[in-house]
Structures are given as structure tokens and as C-alpha cells.
Design a protein that fits this description.
With 340 residues, this protein is of the alpha/beta class. The protein is built from 9 helices and 18 strands. It is 26% helix and 24% strand. The mean pLDDT is 97.
Length: 340
């Protein structure tokens, strides 16, 4: 696994929009305020040509334009790391316009984003053996005041702290809107993790995962090199971190079935499951917990659920590709990542 250099003091942060950009509110004002904050902290800013574009379908621009921006900004030495402007819907369509052989040959660089950005964070790791950060997108850094999760993300990018702990509350209903673009996370719900089996847990392995909505799109395509990746790191074993956006509990169950039958879960050491957007939903007797656990229980590995990963803020940034040590006791959990 190759690890990029950490963002240095006074370094240059590049921004790209391979999915949605920050053209509309509340994202534009939040992104501008985030840039102001970064500049006040001494960083330089480099924005890609699509950051304020909104002429694409499900993404900021045409697939060709988004693919070119992503490749060019990753391969250039003019910035030190990349943060995506936002998530979206059809980032998968840009992949044919980004040369992953050129990306693999370039000096490794941190790329951070989540949701639709799974199309980059996951493939950087599985195709290029380069670690990435599954973490917040650019506009989130514009909130006032910032949640500690945003500080955790910057501490990860700068190498100041690679051991993270779950947060005490989460956001069920956002107050962010066009009229209130800088609203902070509205955290009102006490965090309550679920463990299968219940009890104290300690396990280690290499982190791999992202948004299930995006991951299942790779199955059966030329971008699916997951079995080769898991074989390459079989001695470490894989800790899968997974979360869902648009999938209901039946969709989550189908996604887990697909990944399991594609052989993705070989050599797994455990599962870290984020709160799904359909949190609390039940359909025909199936809830969010059994949607996952009934598929993976055969592996007899720890399964932690309702974690701070993904679409239900706050989100714990994770280094995809890193070697992680997970500890859980009661309602507390931590992820300590090693770059090895």
C-alpha cells in the first residue's frame, strides 16, 4: 500500500467536482466560507474548472470534462491533496475518462470525499494500491461553528492524529438550507452502537469500503479488482466499512448479497457499518441490522453497526487502505489507523 505525504503547513489544497459541484446554495456559500477558513489557517487554494459548474447530469459537467479535471488535478504537482466539492449521482460515468494507469504512475496524493466519491476513494485503493480518505466533502468545512469531526478530518490529512473515536450524538434532521448555508450539524440523537456478537471487541485488518450504492455498480465490470486486492492482502485481512444512501433495507440486503456472492468478503476480519439514511426502517420484518448481519454472520467476525460513517452526520474520516485496529466496549469505539 502506498501512502501520500501529509498536507504540510502552508500547503495547497486542490478542489475538484467529479460529482456535484458547489454552484447552488447552500453549498456555494458554505464552500466559499470553507475556503476563507483554510486561507486563514495559512493554506493555499486551487479550484478546478468544474467546482462551480452545473451543466452535467448527476455530476457537475460532462463525464469527459469531469474525468479530465480529476486526472489532471490528481497527476499535477501544483497541489498537495484533493478534496471533492460534493457527492452526487453519476460519478461512475466519468471513470472511462480518467486514466487509472496514469493516476497509478503519479506520485500518491490524498483524495478525500464520500458518497458518490466512492468511485475514486475505492478505486484508488483497489486499482492503484494508494490510500485515500473516506471523509467529508469541501462545503462541510464551511459550517459555523465546525463540528469536531471536521477537525478530525484535517488532522488526518495533516498526519496529526490517526486514532479516532465515535461521537456522542448524531444528526437526524439537518438545519442547513439555502437561507442558512453555514448551519452546523444539528446533533440531537444519542449515539448507540450495535454489536454482533455483543460484548467487548478488539480486531485488526486493512480498511476497505465506501457507499454501497456505488460499490455494487463495480460488480461485473472491468473496475472490479476486489478479489485480487483481498488476495494481495490476505495476511492482513480486510475490515469492511460500509454505509448506504438511497438504499432501503431491502436494497441493503441485496447489495450485501451481491458483494458476498462476488467473493468480496473473503479474508474479512470484521465489518464497520454506518447509520443508513433509512435508519429505523423496517420492511416485511427486515430491519437495517438483519439486512447486513444475516448475510455476513457465516464469517464469524465482529460486526459493528450504527457507526459515524457516511451520510448521517457526523462522519468519522477513515483511511481506505490503511491497517486499522478497532476497539469497542459498551457504547464506545475507536479506530486506530497505521500506514503500513
Amino acid at each position: 500500500m502506498r501512502y501520500p505525504a501529509f498536507l504540510p503547513a502552508g500547503g495547497k489544497i486542490g478542489f475538484v467536482a467529479p460529482s456535484f459541484g458547489c454552484a447552488a446554495e447552500p453549498y456555494k456559500s458554505a464552500f466559499l466560507n470553507a475556503q476563507k477558513k483554510w486561507k486563514e489557517d495559512g493554506y493555499e487554494i486551487q479550484t478546478g474548472p468544474n467546482c462551480y459548474a452545473e451543466c452535467g447530469i448527476g455530476i457537475s459537467n460532462t463525464p469527459a470534462a469531469c474525468g479530465k479535471e480529476l486526472q489532471d488535478f490528481y497527476c499535477t504537482q501544483e497541489n498537495d491533496c484533493l478534496i471533492s466539492c460534493g457527492g452526487g449521482e453519476l460519478m461512475c460515468e466519468i471513470l472511462d475518462y480518467a486514466d487509472f494507469e496514469k493516476i497509478k504512475a503519479a506520485a500518491p496524493k490524498w483524495y478525500m470525499g464520500y458518497s458518490d466519491n466512492t468511485n475514486m476513494t475505492f478505486l484508488l485503493t483497489t486499482l492503484c494500491d494508494v490510500a485515500s480518505v473516506y471523509g467529508p466533502c469541501a462545503s462541510a468545512f464551511g459550517m459555523e461553528p465546525q463540528h469536531p469531526a471536521l477537525e478530525d478530518a484535517m488532522n488526518l490529512l495533516t498526519g496529526k492524529n490517526l486514532e479516532l473515536h465515535g461521537y456522542d450524538k448524531w444528526e437526524k434532521e439537518s438545519f442547513k438550507s439555502e437561507e442558512n448555508p453555514l448551519a452546523p450539524y444539528h446533533v440531537t440523537e444519542p449515539s448507540a452502537i450495535r454489536k454482533f456478537p455483543d460484548g467487548k471487541m478488539d480486531f485488526s485488518g486493512r480498511l476497505l469500503g465506501g457507499c454501497m450504492d456505488c460499490l455494487v455498480n463495480f460488480l461485473g465490470t472491468g473496475y472490479d479488482k476486489v478479489r485480487e486486492f483481498t488476495e494481495r492482502y490476505r495476511e492482513d485481512g480486510i475490515i469492511w466499512f460500509l454505509e448506504a444512501c438511497d438504499l432501503n433495507v431491502m436494497g441493503i440486503r441485496r447489495a450485501m448479497w451481491q458483494m458476498e456472492h462476488a467473493g468480496w468478503f473473503s479474508h474479512c476480519k470484521g465489518f464497520l457499518i454506518g447509520r443508513p439514511v433509512c435508519h429505523g426502517q423496517e420492511m416485511m420484518g427486515l430491519d437495517q441490522y438483519q439486512a447486513v448481519y444475516e448475510v455476513v454472520r457465516k464469517y464469524n467476525v465482529p460486526v459493528l453497526m450504527d457507526l459515524d460513517i457516511g451520510h448521517m452526520p457526523p462522519m468519522m474520516p477513515l483511511i481506505c487502505g490503511s491497517y486499522a485496529h478497532v476497539h469497542a466496549d459498551g457504547n464506545e469505539y475507536s479506530v486506530k489507523m497505521e500506514l503500513k
